[in-house]
Specification:
Pfam family, one: Lipase_GDSL
GO molecular function, one term: lipase activity
Structural class: alpha/beta
Family: Belongs to the 'GDSL' lipolytic enzyme family.
Protein name: GDSL esterase/lipase 5
Number of strands: 10
CATH architecture: 3-Layer(aba) Sandwich
CATH class: Alpha Beta
Bound molecules: 2-acetamido-2-deoxy-beta-D-glucopyranose
Number of helices: 11
Order of helices and strands: HEHEHEHHHEHHEHEEEEHEH
Distance between the termini: 59 Å
Number of domains: 1
Keywords: Signal
Strand content: 5-15%
Largest sheet: 6 strands, mixed
Length: 376
């Protein structure tokens, strides 16, 4: 009796090889983390990107959105996002095939391979901006440092370096630095000229970018500032009769945006491996305000949720000192969700424009976010 026919011998070998291979693969995923398989998304900034960090800090309801009707369209509960549903960063995560990126302060969350969200509603590049009720950009950068330490402990130097350089670093910051002097009784704009103030904001923003770059970041995805004087909440800062934008604020945003463009081009030359994807949020939001129908929206100026003219009074949810507020029936027909923030349906369109170049929009560049999530 032959023990091994040729076929059974071959079979035995194939089986053995398969067993061996799958064994190493199992071991591989358990003990050998593969950093080149992950492109994490790290998110910094303000309420345009905060997914719930401010739920966990000592602040006021002005800087929180953890009550209904916030979240009513998509999550069916208030997550802390300043919208009726998902934010730009949520759609970017979806397009990149990674799970929703959790807030850094969410309790029990400490797996950072797919990234983490540090953004905080009300935050600015200056520590003085809404000081005491937000997580300023500098503190967000310090929290990022903690995450890099965690990754180094888990993965070792080489793999954590790969992961960090593959990662995409998304920023929306600056709006609150310009809004706060108009919304509080600060007279900072009496002491500084517009140019001086902008260079202070840009200086602090770019020193954070450099710091994060030094910790290994290479791919920066940055939203510039929207037309800040044309939000429902800033239009109403003008006298009753006027329905136009608050020009001084929109002008500060434009000066900021030009300076931002210049400094990013400079970094591209100066910093080895530095890549950026600058999104002209200003241009797309301006278009949507003026031509909502082109974007499948019906209303570009009036907010869905709030009270008073343009529903510009920041009372959405009735928890900010004023119980009365109005709420539209179909948020997906509106550009603005509340006095300062956009609806999910607007964010979805903007995210798509950041992800790909489209025929009628080239407001993202030099890289698209899609480029950043390919191996490069
Ligand atoms: C929260 O902030 C308020 C006002 O700044 C302060 O009075 C209070 O002690 C703080 N609470 C905690 C738990 O830190
Ligand atoms: C950062 O902002 C502070 C005010 O908070 C200012 O004094 C400082 O000059 C700014 N730094 C840069 C590099 O612009
Ligand atoms: C981006 O472009 C690709 C290729 O044309 C397409 O398959 C994809 O659906 C687009 N993604 C978005 C979010 O528009």
């Amino acid at each position: 009796m032959k023990f091994f026919t040729t076929t059974s011998f071959i079979f035995f070998h194939i089986f053995f090889i398969i067993a061996l291979v799958s064994e190493t693969q199992t071991l591989g995923t358990k003990t050998n983390y593969r950093s080149n398989k992950y492109i994490p998304l790290f998110i910094f900034g303000d309420s345009y990107l905060d997914a719930g960090n401010n739920n966990c800090i000592n602040t006021t309801t002005y800087d929180q959105a953890n009550f209904l009707p916030y979240g009513e369209t998509y999550f069916n509960f208030p997550t802390g996002r300043f919208s009726d549903g998902r934010l730009i960063s949520d759609f970017i995560a979806e397009y990149a095939n990674i799970p929703l990126v959790p807030p850094f302060l969410q309790s029990g969350f400490n797996q950072y391979y797919n990234g983490v969200n540090f953004a905080s509603g009300g935050a600015g590049a200056l520590v003085e901006t809404f000081q005491g009720s937000v997580i300023p950009l500098k503190t967000q950068a310090r929290n990022f440092k903690k995450v890099t330490t965690w990754l180094r402990h888990k993965l070792g130097n080489s793999d954590s370096k790969t992961l960090l350089s593959n990662g995409v670093y998304m920023f929306s910051i600056g709006s609150n630095d310009y809004l706060s002097p108009f919304l509080t009784n600060s007279d900072v704009l009496k002491y500084y000229s517009h140019l001086e103030y902008v260079s202070m904001v840009i200086g602090n923003f770019t020193s954070t970018i450099k710091e994060i770059y030094k910790r290994g970041a290479r791919k920066f995805a940055i939203l510039n500032l929207p037309p800040l004087g044309c939000l429902p909440g800033t239009r109403i800062l003008q006298s009753q009769e006027k329905a136009s934008c608050l020009e001084e604020l929109s002008s500060l945003a434009s000066i900021h945006n030009q300076a931002l463009n210049v400094v990013l081009l400079k970094f591209e030359k100066q910093l080895n491996g530095f890549k950026f994807s600058l999104y002209d949020y200003n241009s797309d939001v301006t278009q949507m305000i003026n031509h909502p129908l082109k974007y499948g929206l019906k209303e570009g100026k009036l907010a869905c949720c709030g009270s008073g003219r343009f529903r510009g009074k920041y009372s959405c949810g009735g928890k900010r000192g004023d119980k009365h507020f109005e709420l539209c029936e179909k948020p997906n027909e509106y550009l603005f969700w509340d006095s300062y923030h956009l609806t999910e349906s607007a964010y979805k369109q903007l995210a798509a424009r950041m992800w790909n170049h489209t025929e009628n929009s080239r407001n993202i560049g030099p890289y698209t976010i899609n480029d950043f999530f390919q191996d490069m």
